[in-house]
Amino acid sequence: MSNLFDKTTDALATSIQLRQVRHNVTSANIANAETPGYHAKKVDFEDALARALDLDGKGALSTSHEGHFAVGGKPSVEPGIYENPDVAISNDGNTVDLEKEMSSLAENSILYKTALQLINKKMAALKYAISETR
User: Of the candidates 39, 48, 51, which has an alpha carbon nearest to the alpha carbon of residue 21?
Assistant: First the structure.
């Protein structure tokens, strides 16, 4: 994003992208709840968000001389998707717990909508500030 937006707006936008990925993974798990041998997937949401926002500052690169090439930039927002180790295996080899997946989908949906509402409020505040300066 440009310098027009602050770190909070960047965090909300990144959160929305990652919540969309989590929604897709959870929906795939639900769709395959009856598929023999299917192993439920899980999204590493928190670590991906921290990497994207560089909350701990470890990913920040800088130059020590003005003649050096510019480094840094926005890190990628690719969450880790892996097989969920926290589930039991059924008789047919499927590891999807439908109740947990439905609960996770509902929670993710609420948090996705909340992030959208917060971005909308920030955009409304910007719009108000722009219109009041005329």
Answer: 48
Rg (alpha carbons) of the chain, rounded to whole number: 20
**Per the structure, how many domains does the chain have?**
1
Residue 38 · residue 28 · CB < 8 Å: no
Concatenate the DSSP letters of all residues of the chain into one string: --TTS-HHHHHHHHHHHHHHHHHHHHHHHHHTTTSTT---EEEEHHHHHHHHHTTTSTT----SSTTSPP---PPP---EEEE-TTS---TTS----HHHHHHHHHHHHHHHHHHHHHHHHHHHHHHHHHHHT-
pLDDT digits 0-9 by tens, 22-49 = 999 999 999 999 999 999 999 887 777 7
The parent domain of residue 38 ranges over 7-86+97-132
Task: Give the global pTM.
Answer: 0.73
Residues 6 or more apart from 130 whose CB is under 8 A from it? Answer: none
Residue 37 lies in a domain: yes
- The contacts of residue 104 (CB under 8 Å, 6+ apart) are 22, 26
